[in-house]
Amino acid sequence: MRYLLLLMILLVSCKPTESITKTTKKVNINTLQDAIAYRHFTAEMPKGWHFVFDHGFAAYSPSVLGNSYYKSITKIFNLEYLNTKNKPLEKVAKKDFYNFASYRDAYEFENEVFQTKFGETYSYTLSFKLGKTIYKVNRTYFTFNNRYYCMYYHSEKKIFDTYFDTAKALMFSIQVKA
Question: Which of 39, 54, 118, 126 could potentially form a cystine with 106 if both were Cys, beta carbons 3.0 to 4.6 Å apart?
Fold first, then answer.
């Protein structure tokens, strides 16, 4: 009984030293329409491409691939989940890419830094094998509307170059959502 009383006194007397003003809103994204509505931007759909719902994201894929969209897919997403405030894009990009790469038996790493309409842009590419298929992935990091974004392009290696320029054009077409 004495321990219970002591515990109650400790719990009542302990209070946080600062108030929590930020609230986290949980968003359920269960459909393609939810994923599109949640984005902070719009992008011009490339001719011959369509939306697909992939792992909670509105993604883009060449229509010719139909239900095999995983053979070549592009996503654009913000990196707020990485707690990027007051961190330079270069460090955020490098950390995110190497975290992504660490979960794959990756090889053929390439990276480059270049100027785009978004300013300094960081591009990382790798290849990896999954089963009998070799995939190639590009993650391009940029700043848009004061937020950090990643364009993720994933394709079977043999068709990577076929759709990569269109994926980049999709990234360059983004605009602030009205």
Answer: 126
Question: Over pLDDT 70: what percentage of the chain?
Answer: 84
Domain annotation covers residue 11: no
Domain span at 170: 24-176
**Mean pLDDT, rounded, of the chain:** 84
pLDDT tens figures, 99-131: 888 888 888 999 999 999 999 999 999 999 999
Check if the beta carbon of residue 175 is closer than 8 Å to that of residue 105: no
Give the model's pLDDT for residue 26.
Answer: 58
Which tokens go with 23? Answer: 């609230």
55-64 long-range contacts, CB within 8 A, separation 24+: 56/29, 58/32, 60/167, 60/170, 62/163, 62/166
In a domain, 7, yes or no: no
Q: Domain of 147: which CATH number?
A: 3.40.1000.10
110 close to 125: Cβ distance less than 8 angstroms: yes
User: Total structural domains in the chain?
Assistant: 1
DSSP 109-122: EEEEEEEETTEEEE
Contact between 111 and 101 under an 8 Å Cβ cutoff? The reply is: no
Q: Which of 177, 172, 164, 176 is nearest to 74 (CA)?
A: 164
